[in-house]
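Entry for the shared binder. Reason: the reviewer on the internal report wants the predicted structure included alongside the sequence.
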Amino acid sequence: MAMDASSQQDRALAMHAEHLMRGGQVRAALPIFRQLVARHPRHVEALYHLGICEVAVGQRAEGARHIEKAIAVGPSRPEMLHNLALAYRGMGRFADAMRIHDELILRWPDHPAGPAGKAELLHFIGEEASARALLEPALVRWPDDPSLMLTWSRLCEGDEEKQRVVERLDAICRRDDLPPASRAQALFRLGLLCEELGRYDEAWTAATQANAIRKEPFDAATEQQAISRMLEAWQPDAIARLHMGRSADQTPVFIVGMPRSGTSLVEQIIAAHPLAFGGGERPHLHEQIAESCGGAYMDAPAKLARGAFDRMGTRYLRSLRALAPQAQRITDKAPMNWRSVGPIAMMLPGARVIHCVRSPMDTCISCWFLAFDGALPFAYDLAALGAMVRLSRVLMEHWQRVLDLPILHVQYEELVAEPEGEIRRIIEFTGLPWDDACLRFHATERVTTTASNPQVRRPVYSTSIGRWRRYAAQLGPLRQALGPYADPEG
């Protein structure tokens, strides 16, 4: 459906938003597409691009709905189905994603998006042999397709095969016709493979170029001010005057910490218990806090009406229990919930919090080499990463001092060094009886939807400890931003 003849301004807006989106400025494009869809609710391109932007900032359910509507209004294209399948995968709807990939292959047999997407999904759910069987003939047919090359980069094994992929990825990254988002994805994969081959200078260069493409506006000073307001508002005397929720329900277990600090691993361990369920990164807590206080932080809890925490807790528990009504414990692994531990204590006094901690510099380097899905604007700048790690530590230390809430600190390096002892400590903290299945967490059929999915399907390993030392000479801005929390030199 075309925009009507009187909407020349809307057509100009649509072109501007598409230019922003293709240049990687998704957050700037998002409100423009929302405005266009509000005025033209059956405009295919506006619906589709709005969905793409929503998925990119972590609003996968909304994004999937808009892409679905664009496909229904039609006519659809292969990339529409491909991106709908990616949205489903991010939501954990793997069967739906597989169905879409199969439909894409059936309707467009001469397009590489179908086999590329299906092979990547098969890899994601652990069916490596099936993924390679689908990928190998597709690579012969479309040897220069970026999406197939990205999938191959995740499946390749052994130095010789990785070397071949590095050469092909490097050639793809140099192409003039590659969109910025695709170039960034290819550069991130190139960086990881170069690191696995011990080519650390090349790895750093590729990751730096990828982050430069993905970089988003982020104001560390504003973040610092928001955390400072929380520290002032959540003092013991003020907390004592708040009206706590009445539910003592012990179902929720919040796993918090910076991304790449071990949160997915800890969730996988708990989810292996037959009485527990891994809920993944739930959006409801953040949404309720934003709705109640008009922002991402609850820095003025005293302004909430009496009973507000009780109502918020009831709503949250309802959404959580719907995931697994019979489970005794359900995890919420949204890492950035470290900002919300105070509200959690007031909403859900029966909840438990597990705080995952890892070497700050290893945490940041792990983020630096990854293309995240969702809203993490600080993840593409070393100084911003360091600032967020420092603020997370400061705020968690504050919550530990002022709240009467069970908080367990899990150090990633200790979990790797003494896995059985740490796993037993984690399960004991949840209040569940011991079950040996938790020691075999990597053997569970559960698939996570985060970047850590390949890692949590393996037993714990120590090869990533001290990773930052490979790049120590480039980490001055990170060390300065971390301040007293930086890893010791030497």
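Summary line for the report: The first helix runs from residue 8 to 22.
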